Amino acid sequence: MSVQSLKHLLIDTDVDFDDYMAISYLLKHHAVKVEGITVTGVGAVHLSHGAENISNYLTLFDDPEIARIPVVAGFQRPMLYSNTFPFETRQAADHHYDAEFPRKNPNPTRADTLAFLRETLEKSDHKFTVLMIGGGTTWGHLFQHAETDNALKNLLLRKVERIVMMGGNLLSEYVKPGAAGNIIDALGDAPYYTNQVAEWNIFLDPLAAQYVFDGGIPVQLVALNACNQIPLTQNFLYQLSRISNPVAQFLTQVLQSSTIAPGIGHYLYFWDPLAAVAITDPQFLQFTRYSLKVEQALNEEQDTSGKLLPNSAGAPVDVALGASPGFVTSLYLYTIAGNSVGATVENMAAAMEQSADK
User: Fold this and answer.
1) Nearest-10 Cα torsion for 278, 340, 12, 101
2) pTM exceeds 0.90, yes or no
């Protein structure tokens, strides 16, 4: 894996707990150069908190170059409807799960997401991979603008080689085994949505997801079908806690927070980190191509908005339906420990065996 070519990356995030996990992995990986982080307020975090949190989080790496990565605030509302996470989830994200940042980042954030993305693409002499781990709102707006701006459309097609998006699920009526939606799971004892078929990142802005799928750029969708095969476990948390660097200790604090800890080993999965691994090592995921549309209609009594619909008239999307749990988690831990170069299949297999023995 040490011979991997450098991947130039743009990240769009809603700054949830697993976003910190995913971004940490990518910033610690030797073959990734993150060149911008856009923050969406359509998801876990409120927008102003999200931009500040990500900016200050970058100081964990004690690297001036990482601290200078542009952090840009995006949109507060989805392109369609007004679906939102529970208050408690958003409050915990706003307070970065009570985990401390080393200091305030002196580098200012920006608030002109679409201008920043266009400017970055125009000025670069290389192509980008885009990671979307906070829904599709930011890039949905960009693709919407491109429908009436041929220069922007051509720029996107020339400079963006791949989009990796964590989101969605294919139900058992379309694939075996299927993955159910996860909206109700997050709503506690008093659910205020009726949707049982969608995944949060798509549900929050189904129109934006459709714009992303239809944008003409290859999309790899890391769906719940694959993520559900890698639960976050106490054993994983234990191994992470034993890594003695500031990034690993910050992530440990996040996962041990009062909001997140109850889900470890129960209902939390390797959502966004699996999408990050798909950036560097897609061979550890199993993708199948589908032509997809996203259900747009909202029915409050029996809602199916955000449901993924295989349809011959839909856009081609490579959907991750499976993953290799042991290799993925071992690669993740190797990388967080600062040893992504040494994360060979042989070393990871040995680590997996050692972990199983313990």
Assistant:
1) 150
2) yes
- Give the mean model confidence (pLDDT) for residues 203-225: 98
List the domain range (segments joined by +) for residue 70.
7-357
Q: Which two tokens stand for residue 231?
A: 């639960």
pLDDT at residue 35, as a whole number: 98
In angstroms, the CA 133 to CA 354 distance is 31
Predicted confidence (pLDDT) at residue 354 exceeds the cutoff of 80: no
Mean pLDDT (the chain) is 95
β 285-294/315-323 pair status: antiparallel
- Provide the CATH number for the domain around residue 191: 3.90.245.10
135 in any annotated domain = yes
Q: 234 is written with which tokens?
A: 């106490």
Tell me how many domains the chain contains.
1
End-to-end Cα distance, the chain: 26
Report the distance separating Cα 274 and Cα 271, nearest Å: 6
192: DSSP letter: -
Over residues 166-209, the pLDDT tens digits come to: 999 999 999 999 999 999 988 888 889 999 999 999 999 999 99
- Structure tokens, 184: 């109700």
Please provide residue 9's backbone torsions phi and psi, each rounded to the nearest 5 degrees.
-125, 140
- Amino acid, single-letter form, for residue 141: H
Domain presence at residue 247: yes
Strand 219-222, strand 315-323: pairing: parallel
Quick one: what percent of the chain has pLDDT higher than 70?
Answer: 97
E-strand ranges in the chain read 7-13, 32-39, 71-73, 128-133, 160-166, 219-222, 285-294, 308-310, 315-323
Could you report the per-residue pLDDT of 41-73, keeping only the tens digit for each? 999 999 999 999 999 999 999 999 999 999 999
Question: What stretches of 68-156 adopt beta strand conformation (E)?
Answer: 71-73, 128-133
3-state secondary structure string, 283-305? HHEEEEEEEEEECCCCCCCCCCC
